């Protein structure tokens, strides 16, 4: 592992700095060094960020950059960067740009040839996924669910057959309605994990078939408090059931024919899927 002088920052550079999603101890030393040494911090909410900076005795000047002014202020910040100013971009919690402001600024910086340095750090998506117990080799982060029922149902319908683990953000006041819409589209048996209050005192990660999860939430109003990450197991095609007759036929034919041809003939005789028969043969007759 190489070592660098983490207390130094480069001029004319935009740093993407993750901040804690709940537990202040999760901030990295590198993040603190960058925040303390840059010329300016572009923050989603300057009052919120000021409390964080005050906690760590950092006095760097802040500048408001949020969803409503980002496109207008991006040019101003790029001019500052091109003149040699070093800037850190932070959101209220977690990694900037992940369902938070920053995309337009980073995109414009890339177009303008301004150096962008992303720091690793807290991110609710990855934190929830790592503890959910759902497949993590392939996943899709879908951001916040639409605010209206029709939009949510359309979203779930479009993703119903996606085999990846699906990850959403949702607010406490919409979680019950969103899960009800999910139930209507994906069914009661789809495995869902709810991760709330991550890294905080009342952190909860609870998984169950969707129908049972909805019942579990209804048992205690405290379970719908706090910011939430909803993780949904990807679609799994039901294994096609092969009749006993077709398997007996395959077993007889494979004694005289190659498996591939035996599977094709069995499929024709019994109206079964050739690929399913071939796979079963590989697993059981090899």
TrEMBL record:
Catalytic activity: cytidine(1402) in 16S rRNA + S-adenosyl-L-methionine = 2'-O-methylcytidine(1402) in 16S rRNA + S-adenosyl-L-homocysteine + H(+)
Pfam families according to UniProt: RsmI_C (PF23016), TP_methylase (PF00590)
CDD domains per record: RsmI
E.C. code: 2.1.1.198
Residue ranges annotated for the Tetrapyrrole methylase domain, each copy included: 13-213
GO cellular component, one term: cytoplasm
Domain RsmI HTH stretches: 240-284
Function description: Catalyzes the 2'-O-methylation of the ribose of cytidine 1402 (C1402) in 16S rRNA.
Family under the similarity heading: Belongs to the methyltransferase superfamily. RsmI family.
Protein name, entry field: Ribosomal RNA small subunit methyltransferase I
Gene field: rsmI
């Amino acid at each position: 592992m190489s070592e660098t002088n983490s207390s130094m920052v480069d001029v004319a550079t935009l740093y993407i700095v993750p901040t804690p999603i709940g537990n202040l101890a999760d901030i990295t030393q590198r993040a603190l060094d960058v925040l303390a040494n840059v010329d300016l911090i572009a923050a989603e909410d300057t009052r919120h960020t000021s409390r964080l900076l005050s906690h760590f005795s950092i006095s760097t000047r802040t500048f408001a950059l949020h969803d409503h002014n980002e496109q207008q202020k991006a040019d101003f910040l790029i001019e500052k960067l091109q003149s040699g100013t070093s800037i850190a971009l932070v959101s209220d919690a977690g990694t900037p740009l992940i369902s938070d402001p920053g995309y337009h600024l980073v995109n414009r910086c890339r177009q303008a040839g301004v150096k962008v340095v992303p720091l690793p750090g807290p991110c609710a998506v990855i934190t929830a996924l790592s503890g959910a117990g759902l497949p993590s080799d392939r996943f899709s982060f879908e951001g916040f669910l639409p605010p209206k029922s029709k939009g949510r149902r359309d979203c779930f319908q479009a993703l119903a057959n996606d085999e990846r683990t699906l990850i959403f953000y949702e607010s406490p006041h919409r979680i019950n309605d969103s899960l009800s819409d999910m139930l209507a589209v994906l069914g009661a048996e789809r495995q869902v994990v709810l991760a709330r209050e991550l890294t905080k005192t009342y952190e909860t990660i609870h998984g169950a078939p969707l129908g049972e999860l909805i019942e579990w939430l209804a048992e205690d109003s405290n379970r719908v408090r706090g910011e939430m990450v909803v993780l949904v197991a990807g679609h799994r095609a039901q294994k096609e059931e092969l009749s006993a007759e077709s398997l007996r036929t395959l077993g007889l034919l494979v004694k005289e024919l190659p498996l591939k041809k035996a599977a094709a003939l069995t499929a024709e005789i019994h109206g079964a899927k050739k690929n399913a028969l071939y796979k079963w043969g590989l697993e059981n007759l090899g």
